[in-house]
Write a structure and sequence with these properties.
By secondary structure, the chain is of the alpha/beta class. The protein is 45% helix and 14% strand. 40% of the residues are buried.
Length: 345
Amino acid sequence: MSTFDLTSLPSTDPLAIYRERDGLYAVDLLGAALVHFDFFTWLAEHPSDKPTLCRELQLVERPADVMLTLFAAMGLVEERAGVFHVTGTAREHLVKSSPWFLGPYYASLKDRPVLKDYISVLKTGRTANWGGFKDAQDWHKAMEDETFANNFTAAMDCRGVYLGAAMAKHLDTTGRHQLLDIAGGSGIYACAIVARHPHLRATVLEKPPVDAVARRAIEKRGLSERVSVIAGDMLAGELPGGFDLHLISNVLHDWDAPVARQILAKSARALTPGGTLVIHDAHINETKTGPLPVAKYSALLMHSTEGKCYSLAEMRGYLGALGFTDFQFRETAVDRSIITVRRPS
């Protein structure tokens, strides 16, 4: 049994360490746009809305949206009345006609594997292999392999020890009793929540073989009596009923908008009337101009998953359309945040 207190937080701030990892691929996305598409020269000559930009450059909407959000957060493009323009910084340093053009400087990176991946992702919308490994399956399919599932879940678990405690600290669970952690991985977030809120009981929903990983991890933490696991695929059927608190933590960002909306719709149908849905993730701001660390993280997700970091405006729209009310947003730790909404009684 683990004696580690899941309500505790470190005495030092790991923000910079997280940002180094989460923002790792952003330079490759900038390089792909600059070296392969000469994107800023084109945009300087053809200010465009997103549909026109996608059509003329033959880009797919999801990766193009992530790219534009990153460049807006970097101060390289700006949107005015729905039309994207280059900024002064981009015009001086990223447009080919400028004497200060840095294209050749970035061209030295053109053979980086992740940069090459981005060219394909931007054109096709199909995810690259996890971490750029060419002999690997996409991460979702690879999770059906026990070895990969163990390694990937362990990576997310160690992150969750800190993020889970920070998230649980900001949750108001008054009047809630039964938590369903949807696609909860190792169960670290469910464990962190029940450790902080002892009146709760939790259930982790995970598909095999991750459900077995979760059971072992929860047992090692000594929380098996308060956190259970049920095997199930959130995409294959309806969610189980009887829960007045739903948690979707670091899940939606792995999926494109249609699937993300499908997951939210399943929560809306299964959640007890009057219950609370908590979405824990990294979120882009309302205007899609930042924060820059989240925009960089979104670039990594766009490369290796079918998703991205969703904006507050997007989430507000998706949730409102499903009838959820009382939209609230709180920052937690390391560029992460929670959105909470209530299902009407």
